[in-house]
Amino acid sequence: MPRDLLALYAAQELYVREWQYHKELKLWFTRATQADGLVGQAPGGQYIYFDVNAWERRLFTGIVSGGLQAGFMRVEELVVPGGVDVRPESDQARQQAQQGRGSGWPPARR
Length: 110
What we know:
about 110 residues, SH3 type barrels
């Protein structure tokens, strides 16, 4: 779980881009889309995770007790100490999203 200020801001940006953090697996997930060519092939949809070792998105094929969604961090947990609201539905986050931040995750490797 993100514990420092920069990690919280990074988590906020990922949530705005529709990624969710799984607390037990310690991985970031997003739902597969038609662009991934995987939609509709599994009940409940399929998920893509970001593999930090290969620096790429990969299809999640594992099985998680209680279901994958049960382990996702709730957006309410994205609050910076000191009262700054970094949750995606906050006015601050909405303004950032409207300023042209696209879904360019993951960033290109340099």
